[in-house]
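Supplementary Text 2. Reproducibility record for the structural model of the 100-residue chain.

All settings were left at their defaults, and a single model was retained for analysis rather than an ensemble. We include the record here because the model underlies the residue-level annotations in Supplementary Table 4.
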Amino acid sequence: MSLDISCPNCETDEHLFGARNDAVITITCSGCSLSWDRPAAPHCERCGSTDVVAHPVPLIERSRGTQMSITAMHVETRCRICDADELRERGTGHLPPSLQ
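Retained model, structure tokens:
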């Protein structure tokens, strides 16, 4: 559930313009003139729930030999319903037991 938005027709992520109308944002691609609506509030793509949480996710790589290091963090939107097991494992933003 990312906030990365691209045109479903020409797949560009540039030249997109949005206009908010209550709980909906109408997005228009100036490249191909396609317009589509998306909810203004973050929501789950699978179940449609708005009970979502921003959750930090570490990018872990080998820095030296077998040493694992967090090299970056990004934030993903997770659904409290669909992603309950993953949120429970990760806790409150710490590394999951499988990565400790």
